[in-house]
């Protein structure tokens, strides 16, 4: 449980940082910053979101999916299927 709280705090800190990046992008557009500079920051924000998504996926595989596999049955198949679909969404994004 303590590890879960630590992971949650790390993810929330990352999301707050990303939120700040998005606010910075809004300011850049409002201030008519050079397009290439804005695009560079958009790319950095996308990379930060991808990194956060991968951390969440890793945690899900490590905890939820692993526990379901240990228990076995339909729950295991469901969790593996959910993870597979989440990976597919991340790859398409």
From TrEMBL:
Q: Which InterPro entries match?
A: Metal_Tscrpt_repr, Metal_Tscrpt_repr_sf
Q: Which Pfam families match?
A: Trns_repr_metal
Keyword tRNA-binding recorded:
no
Q: Does the keyword Oxidoreductase apply?
A: no
**Domain of life per record:** Bacteria
UniProt keywords, alphabetically = Copper
Family membership noted in the UniProt record = Belongs to the CsoR family.
Question: What is this protein identified as?
Answer: Metal-sensitive transcriptional regulator
Lineage of origin: Bacteria, Bacillati, Actinomycetota, Actinomycetes, Kitasatosporales
């Amino acid at each position: 449980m303590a590890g879960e709280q630590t992971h949650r705090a790390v993810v929330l800190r990352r999301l707050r940082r990303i939120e700040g990046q998005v606010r910075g992008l809004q300011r850049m557009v409002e201030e008519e910053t050079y397009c290439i500079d804005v695009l560079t920051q958009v790319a950095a924000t996308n990379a930060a979101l991808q990194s956060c998504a991968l951390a969440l996926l890793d945690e899900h595989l490590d905890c939820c999916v692993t526990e379901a596999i240990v228990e076995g049955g339909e729950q295991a198949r469901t969790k593996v299927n959910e993870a597979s679909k989440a990976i597919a969404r991340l790859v398409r994004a």
